[in-house]
Specification:
This protein is of the alpha/beta class. The protein is about 45% helix and about 20% strand. It is built from 14 helices and 13 strands. The protein is globular, with a radius of gyration of 23 Å.
Length: about 350
């Protein structure tokens, strides 16, 4: 049995669902619940709802991965209207620690801990040991991150790469870009490679075919496209996969991701083996003078159920270890304080305060 650890609350918050779990043993997540965000007016309400049904009375530390940039105390979700203060939320539920990080930063930190059965390789290539890894993913938005090896572990990048400008690579994509550009002042990668983006791609292709666009969601388009019951939905999926290939290749060459490029998010895993047969990998390698460079970089689809839990747990574990080290240093300063000179004591008091 894995060793017991101090109980922790782990959460992954998206624009549709808020996933919560408890970690009492390393890597073991119990009491997992997915709460529909629309049923709660604010994040604190959802958090309290989970704590009310989970046996979390002994939990003092929590870490949350959330789908938006995290800078300072105030958190404003990009694709959902939740807004909250980290410190006020921590005090409201009585936690000693409440750590909040970007969801793709957490997902990137999970990469070294994924077991072979938790991802599937698409195409060729071999990863190089201890090299940068990249990750992209489509869901309510488009996430981008990277993992950089350092002497004692890894450092995850907090990026907003999904808001880089969309880069078309075919006449079809030029039409899609023009169609979207008539509605939005800036067409980012996320504007087209996301759940709402798939619906936008479908409407653009319907207009291109001079056909009436039905009010279909991303899930509707995926189901009809995979079943072959709607030619425009099928074309939308085809275009979507190719566009992910371009976006993934751009991240791979930007980061030098010779350790591999991973694909997460909630959309691509639903494509199943269709994605393996799609134009994704061919488009990924379509980079002119750098095609051979990309041909050597492997690409993977993450198939684990809650990979962000693993990453956010690793980040929280590192934070708690750091605090333990800081506490030990402060204890040594307190013990030595009486033997210090008056000037040294003033410095010690400043450090302790």
């Amino acid at each position: 049995m894995p060793p017991l650890i101090e109980p922790r609350l782990i959460a992954d918050i998206g624009a549709r669902y808020a996933h919560f779990a408890l970690e009492r043993e390393p890597g073991v997540y119990s009491s997992h619940q997915a709460l529909l965000c629309a049923e709660y007016p604010e994040f604190l309400t959802a958090l309290r709802a989970y704590l009310a049904v989970a046996d979390a009375r002994d939990v003092r530390h929590a870490a949350i991965a959330i789908a938006n940039p995290v800078e300072g105390d105030q958190v404003q979700m990009t694709n959902y209207p939740w807004h909250f203060s980290i410190e006020e939320t921590r005090k409201a539920v009585g936690f000693e620690t409440l750590l909040v990080v970007n969801d793709f930063t957490a997902l990137a930190m999970a990469l070294p801990y994924l077991a072979p059965g938790q991802y599937r390789q698409i195409g060729g290539g071999q990863p190089k040991d201890r090299c940068v890894m990249g990750i992209v993913g489509a869901g309510s938005g488009f996430g981008v991150s990277g993992l950089i090896p350092v002497e004692d572990g890894w450092v995850a990048l907090a990026t907003e790469g999904g808001h880089a400008s969309f880069s078309p690579r075919s006449a079809r994509e030029m039409y899609i870009l023009d169609f979207a550009g008539r509605q939005y002042p800036h067409v980012s990668v996320e504007r087209l490679i996301s759940a709402s983006g798939l619906a936008l791609v479908y409407r653009a292709l319907a207009a291109r075919a001079r056909a009436d666009a039905e009010p279909l969601s991303a899930l509707d388009i995926t189901q009809k496209g995979l079943a072959g019951t709607c030619p425009i939905c099928a074309e939308a999926l085809e275009a979507f996969c190719e566009m992910i290939g371009t976006a993934a290749a751009n991240v791979a060459v930007t980061l030098g991701a010779r350790g591999g490029l991973f694909i997460g998010g909630g959309i691509v895993p639903r494509f199943g083996t269709y994605f393996d047969r799609s134009g994704f990998r061919a488009r990924f390698e379509e980079k002119g003078r750098f095609s051979e460079y990309l041909a050597h970089i492997p690409t993977y689809v993450i198939t684990a159920d809650t990979p962000a839990f693993t990453g956010i747990s690793a980040i929280l574990n590192a934070e708690l270890k750091k605090r333990t080290g800081e506490s030990a240093l402060l204890d040594r300063i307190r013990q030595a304080r009486s033997a210090l000179s008056q000037a040294e004591r003033r410095v010690a008091d400043l450090v302790l305060s």
